[in-house]
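## retry 2 of 3
previous attempt timed out at serialization; input unchanged, resubmitting
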Amino acid sequence: MDHKRSILIVGGGTAGWLTAAYLAKFLDLARNPALEITVLDSPDIGTIGVGEGAFPTMRTTLQFLGIDESLFIRETAATFKQGIRFVDWLRTPSDSESSHYFHPFEAPFYTEDASLVPYWLLQDERHRRPFAEAVTIQNQVADARRGPKRPEEGAFTGPLNYAYHFDASKLGAMLAKRASELGVQHLNGRVTDIRLRQDGAIDTVTTVEHGGLSADLFIDCSGFRAELIGGALGSPFKSAKRYLFTDRALACKLPYPKADGPLESVTVATAHQAGWTWDIGLAGARGIGTVYSSAHMDDAAAEQVLARYVGARADAVSPRLITFEPGYREQQWIKNCVAVGLSAGFLEPLESTGVVLIEAAVSMIAELFPHNGPIDAPAKRFNTLMTARFDNIITFLKLHYCLSRREEAFWRDNVAPTSIPERLQELLEQWRYRPPNRYDFILDLESFAFFNYQYILYGMDFRTDLSSGRADFPNARAAEKLFQKIQLFGERATAELPTHRALIEQIAASA
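## retry succeeded, writing output
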């Protein structure tokens, strides 16, 4: 390196401390005298609290950081997450009818020769099992509130794919501790001014407590305020409200009535007339929040939706209002500043994409980091990759809404062709005649695989017509045997795996 390079991360929380710990580990900060990483943690930047779920990539991230899985579970009140159960997204419920489907983390079972998906599509719709139940054992395991592994199985491994639910504030504290162990410096202070150089790059970040702080690279983790990338550098914000209508949430925590009661290992997402309600089972409480569109529901009505969902104990919670606009910064890396987390963009809590986007951004920064030469050398490539990833997540999230047959205005508006991205319209037209496959997507630009799209499509009763090509799939009898094996394996796994509550309690007791 030509000289000592310094990184200043403005803002703590999950985004700031995950960025700091990841870069410190990847760049071997503890043994690199030519690099300095500092986090300026401001008390004005709080934890939003909607990102209390992760995607399975979180396991790889924690393992890379050298964080013990059992310690993580104990210190962040974490539980296992095997997917998402969607309730009443397909049609408006009635007293006699409700609908639900499951989006598991396990990929559909397949052999070296063929996929089971076409054979499921060719079965009689009146009698076939729901898609997720037919092609994976995880549906049965999750429905039975079983854990995805046994206590004696190794960290970050198990027979079933999984992620976590966690307390975001506690995760931030744990990541801060790990970052400090890896050599990251920690400052507390309030930003009062941001000074630019003549070329438009950031010169110093001024604080009351520490005066002016300079760095080679500034990383903006200041949340929705986007103090550096938006406030100082004026990166335009690209709204996604044309496609994603929800822009408000009421969030609360609800203690369990019985400490030893059953514990879900899925996020439960229940649709209502203008959005949906999340229900996350942490070790000591449920995290519950109602997400809604302010154009279709006012705050008072949303409070009633949340109260009805919580039930008799509604008076015991104090919901916190969170407002947001779905979208992202068109330029997330400008000159010597790059945004990570909410400062770069936020779409909505569905599918836990907030943490996934943090992981993607920090991984790219680490891999593209310029050890010498212009600090903004990777900016163009980074912006191209991240904006494409945001756009593709918008497409995936919209898929959950645009197939609904619910009758309320919010859902009717979501089905309107003008609200569906052109790319998604093209794919839906193709998927009428074939299921989604890996060639529909470019891996480095995606957060979700083709089979994630299959779970949403066929959970929402989307019809892919393969009937005219039935002769192209001659192994129906062998496929039927595999479907039966999956059911038997699911029953066996349900019998052998511990309850989710027992698994978490045994991990907690192993300290």
